[in-house]
Amino acid sequence: MATKEKVAPLFIWEGxxxxxxxxxxxxxxxxxxxxxxxxxxxxxxVLKLKPKPxxxxxxxxxxxxxxxxxxxxxxxxxxxxxxxxGVPLVQSFEIVGNGxxxxxxxxxxxxxxxxxxxxxxxxxxxxxYPLLFDDLYCNLIQAGxxxxxxxxxxxxxxxxxxxxxxxxxKIKKAMGYPIxxxxxAIVVVTILLLFVIPVFDDMFSGFGAALPAPTQLVVDxxxxxxxxxxxxxxxxxxxxYVFFYFKKRSKKMREFxxxxxxxxAIIGPIMEKAAIARYARTLQTMFAAxxxxxxxxGSVSGAVGNIVFSKAVDQIQQEVSTGTQLNKAMTxxxxxxxxxxxxxxxxxxxxxxxxxLGKVADFYEDEVDNLVDGLTSLMExxxxxxxxxxxxxxxxxxxxxxxxxxxxx
Length: 409
What we know:
Elements: E1 10-16, E2 22-28, H1 32-41, E3 45-51, H2 69-84, H3 89-98, H4 103-117, H5 122-126, H6 135-147, H7 150-204, H8 213-249, H9 251-263, H10 267-288, H11 293-301, H12 307-321, H13 326-333, H14 338-350, H15 353-408
Helix pairs in contact: 2-3, 2-7, 3-4, 6-7, 7-8, 7-10, 7-15, 8-15, 9-10, 10-11, 10-15, 11-12, 12-13, 13-14, 14-15
């Protein structure tokens, strides 16, 4: 496994340029000697140089936060904008890095700047950070560098990253609502059973009469939870740990879960359309960058986000490599809708495959957006109904003995 390279420290400098004008700024280097040498190459006569102090308690400067895929998407767009404006790559790193409010991003960007200044290509620099820039990203950059169209490729990458991150956010939103219903219901019921029901139980114990069946059931559940809460929650915790452990390490389990998700009534259509959107968007971006189709399909396989579709893409790649048309290979997998296959066939016939794939991606991204909005609107009343039934049922069960006493009197 690749280890992350230690980022060089920052130094504050003051000096004069070739015209004698006073200058000051920051430079990143492994030590003071390399920092001075770098500044001399830039025509700066260094007068003062010292390490940049770290802000006290993390105040007064950029905060160090984990770098997210959205940060990489924004960085790609900033870099694309700079290069399209004619700003040199090294200077683009300087501008984007110094303007970032995340210190971890500053370090990463300045690390890329140092690599490029040292004579490495941008692709080689990006490969120093494999956790942030995957093979798909690096392959696209390499294609742009070889073709001399790095600014255009960066623009395509930025668009691709923005759309894929937006799609991921929609999927998380869709998955979050059912989980929220379950968590809220568990928390509310637990609080009622542990703290509210015992008060009623103490009151009922003085009645000297048998409790109604619903009331007795709720009381027994409360006593069980008070006595065995540690075993119950411990079992839930162990079950969740085992589930995620095997989900992470077992490909068969992940495939089973992915197939199950695709068959679910509400979530299934969202997951299917999201996988198709990723497939079309990734293949469009790779193909538009000049990557050969067979090679592009290899990168698409790991980007669709679902093992069922990933295996389908692997099958497509094998068939295309033997001369089969893309649309025919997609038909043979049996997982792509007819509309997607027909639009792909039209794109192949017209020599505009990237354009048609872009239209497919746009359509399915909109479909996911609409489905998520519909799910959100549907889940809000469901949440209220579920909580109402649970809480209302417990309240009614607790007041049944009181109603019976009133009837007797």
